[in-house]
Amino acid sequence: MYQVAVEKVGDYRRELVQEGLARLLARLGGMERFVKPGERVLIKPNLLSAKPPEAAVTTHPELLRAVILQVQQAGGIALVGDSPGIGSAVKVARRSGMLAVIEETGAEFVPFVESREVQGSGVYRRFELAAPYLEAQRLINLPKLKTHEMMTMTCCVKNLFGAIVGTQKAAWHLKAGADKDLFARMLLEVYRLREPDLNIVDAIVGMEGNGPGSGDPCQVGLLLAGDNALAVDQVAAEIAGIPKKLLYVENAARQMKLPGAERAEVECLGLDSNEVPFRSFRLPHLSDVQFGLPAFLKHRLRNQLTSRPEVVEGACRLCEVCVKTCPPGAIRVEGGRLRFDYRRCIRCFCCRELCPHAALRLKDGWLLSLIKKSGTPL
């Protein structure tokens, strides 16, 4: 059985987070089970973009502080690193409040800049992952529980996509992002190259709606932890009330028969997921109803059965973040406004995810719109 600890923590007051984390880890044997004296321990938070903690886009700095202190008390050397979706790691860490915590605790900040080639053993035979991610003796994964417009949920496994440095993320979106199942498989292959020693989920305040960057904060009041990322993700999905058919990563993991992918293998310690008094997360905009269609129909009906990004009138400031981060280069500025090439657009929604002004929305293709209006079960 793969154990997942669940602990109630009502808010981010420092003493509450530190006490709650101590109780959470005690259910798993304490931080000493995962960290030995003298080991270099990489803590990998979610540093998606430069937003303040209250936006719930990034891991909360008080949880990072509590984890650093636990690592140091166990005798470990605490490192903190990630590669943001947009902007420098230093800028994102400063804006999110994490850089101040790193400096106050004496941890070492190791932004993911350099990468090393690693041989895969699945669909993809070659990856380049951040050097600090590969070199650390221990890895603690520190994701935020959020919805995700492409994968429906982002938690432990999805957070490890940050081990891919900078613009290489766009290359992977271009390579695998046009197919959600294939993208999920790629995420799992990254996960298997370096599985975390411990996963601790920030679900005190999560994000629902159009996550991971443009959704709404939602109070959950929980911390989750476990040494198997897939097991933790399953419990997180239950707490969020996300239907199994929409969990692309978890469904791909079951097909691959990965450890922790079956719910029967998972034991909750403390609070069971079905005892959590919380309403289901409001899910992202349903942007695709191509599930199960043969490839030739997917190609022919793609524009009709999917959503596409478009500008919210009056909201775009022409900062060109979307232009610079669009994996297939399907966005340009022309005549003082954004223009989209929907033939090239792969519907990864990186533009919406990274837009700092929430200036993009999704418009349904006519068949998708008709299906939604008809009430046909999806």
From TrEMBL:
InterPro entries from the UniProt entry: 4Fe4S_Fe-S-bd, 4Fe4S_Fe_S_CS, DUF362, PSI_iron-sulfur_center
Domain of life (superkingdom): Bacteria
Cleaved signal peptide residues: none
Keywords: 4Fe-4S, Iron, Iron-sulfur, Metal-binding
GO molecular function: 4 iron, 4 sulfur cluster binding; metal ion binding
Keyword Protease: no
Domain (4Fe-4S ferredoxin-type): residue spans on this chain: 307-335, 336-365
Protein name as it appears in the record: DUF362 iron-sulfur cluster-binding domain protein
The organism of origin for this protein: Citrifermentans bemidjiense (strain ATCC BAA-1014 / DSM 16622 / JCM 12645 / Bem)
